[in-house]
Amino acid sequence: MNPAQTNAGDAAGIATTYANQKGGTGKSTAAGNCAASEAADRAEDLGIQPSELEGDTLVIDLDDQCDVTESLGVVPNMDPKVRTPNPREHGIIALMLDEDLDPLDAVKRTKYGVDVIPGHPEMHRLDATLAGELTAHTILATHVDRLRRRYRRILIDCPGSLGIATINGLVASDEVMVPVSPGTLELKGLQRLDTTIKKTGVAFKLPNLKIDFILITDYDRRESIATQTRQRLGEKYPEALLDTVVPRSVRVPEAPGYGEPMCVYDPGGPADTAFREVVKEMRKRRVARG
Ligand SMILES: Nc1ncnc2c1ncn2[C@@H]1O[C@H](COP(=O)(O)OP(=O)(O)OP(=O)(O)O)[C@@H](O)[C@H]1O
Ligand SMILES: [Mg+2]
């Protein structure tokens, strides 16, 4: 974490980690679409096409499933046996095994104005590979500190577990975004994540590390579980819960198959509209928090 960025309103170089140890809560969907919406807004402000942006928004994929990588149209290297990891070919796994590498070497461009450091299947063995390493939890932070100088926004997509990859994501971040899908076990899971985040903050001397944003995804207001989840999260985490929710849309699960974010796959549709609103609301809240 870069202390200079903390509470710095809408400053550049902000790293946001999308985390929730529960699987399938919409982390990758939110990270990919928020990144594309950030880039689309920025391009609009500058009066250019998103593809003309340079060094604006970066997504770092920490997941061995590589979902966010593929959802942005980047083909990850799926070689399960990496002998000599190199960042150009193997993306995130090479960077996680060597903090002296240049993270910019791992960056792939997309036509959406979003750059991507691709995930890799070998990330599932990261806990075993890095066990006992002194810098096991801070490797990503070292890379992200270099990338902050280059990118206005960095979005880090974590896997659905609380292993070394997620802890790296938390330690590297300026703020934490937790996508939550409606369900009765969500609050319990969130409390566990909250405790882990607090412990991580103490262990790594990051007093500002906390859940900054909670986003309800896959929301269907006709389902009572959805409205109940929203109400309970609002009571328990009033500061963090975003007013904007991402409605359930059949087009959301279709889009990754085409490697397109919602702003391209279904522009003006309910999910695209919601994600554009999410990035605006996050920006407003950052400014309000100072
Ligand atoms: N708003 C939505 N409407 C419909 N389906 C959605 C919505 N948001 C997410 N989904 C679907 O829910 C599933 C899980 O989403 P996603 O992969 O983003 O979750 P995740 O938290 O990243 O999962 P994991 O923990 O496995 O990494 C996907 O099939 C996705 O398409
Ligand atoms: Mg995911």
From TrEMBL:
Domain AAA: 18-200
SUPFAM superfamilies with a match to the protein in the record: P-loop containing nucleoside triphosphate hydrolases
InterPro entries xrefs: AAA_dom (IPR025669), DNA_Partitioning_ATPase (IPR050678), P-loop_NTPase (IPR027417)
Gene3D superfamilies xrefs: P-loop containing nucleotide triphosphate hydrolases
Pfam families hit by this protein: AAA_31 (PF13614)
The organism's place on the tree of life at top rank: Bacteria
PANTHER family for the chain: P-LOOP CONTAINING NUCLEOSIDE TRIPHOSPHATE HYDROLASE, PARA FAMILY PROTEIN CT_582
Protein name: Chromosome partitioning protein
UniProt source species: Asanoa hainanensis
